[in-house]
Amino acid sequence: MKLTPMLASFVMHFGEMGSRWGFNRTVGQMYALLVAHEHPLSANDIAEALNISRGNVSMGLKELQSWQLVQVQHQQGDRKDYFRAVGTIWDMAKKVMEERRKREIDPTLSLLRDMLLDQPANDQERYAQQRLQEIHDLLESVTKWTNELQRLSPDKLNTLLKLSSGVGKVLDMKDKFIGKDSA
């Protein structure tokens, strides 16, 4: 399977972005390939398109399955497994946010909670705990906000995104007419 220049560019870029989202470059490329193909692909198709080993494809597919981003499909009369991206682009974004929260935010919140339960031994630790409390509160707020976002339908999320682009202007107008100190 040969990729067109447009698809190759997308797949390579998505691989770089995947490494920022929590999975390695090759797994990102594999996912991009599956997202951009209308029909499911076999592991051999993926290995050939990306010029990577079959073992690397197998490990990457397992990781994508653990993120619940790909699904196995079978084709009648063919013993090979075929893989396709699951759901819509909104579903993908939700899964990535959920997995990042589980892997990064939740352990951090747990650590912060434990540290905030300790009695400070001196002024430096008291100050540090105040700062840790601020970090904890911010992460808790972001977690609650993302949980609420994940409950919304794609249409409502789209509407919210469009509305949010004007929120800064509304807040600036409020500050101008009411004053910054009255908030």
TrEMBL record:
User: One short Pfam family name for this protein?
Assistant: MarR_2
Q: Which domain of life is it from?
A: Bacteria
The molecular function terms of the Gene Ontology recorded here are: DNA binding; DNA-binding transcription factor activity
Concerning InterPro entries, the annotation shows: ArsR-like_HTH (IPR011991), HTH-GbsR_regulator (IPR052362), HTH_MarR-typ (IPR000835), MJ1563 (IPR026282), WH-like_DNA-bd_sf (IPR036388), WH_DNA-bd_sf (IPR036390)
Ranges for the HTH marR-type domain?
22-80
Give UniProt keywords alphabetically: DNA-binding, Transcription, Transcription regulation
Q: Does the keyword Transcription regulation apply?
A: yes
Q: Which PANTHER family match?
A: HTH-TYPE TRANSCRIPTIONAL REGULATOR MJ1563-RELATED
The UniProt similarity line reads:
Belongs to the GbsR family.
- Mind telling me what this protein is named? HTH-type transcriptional regulator
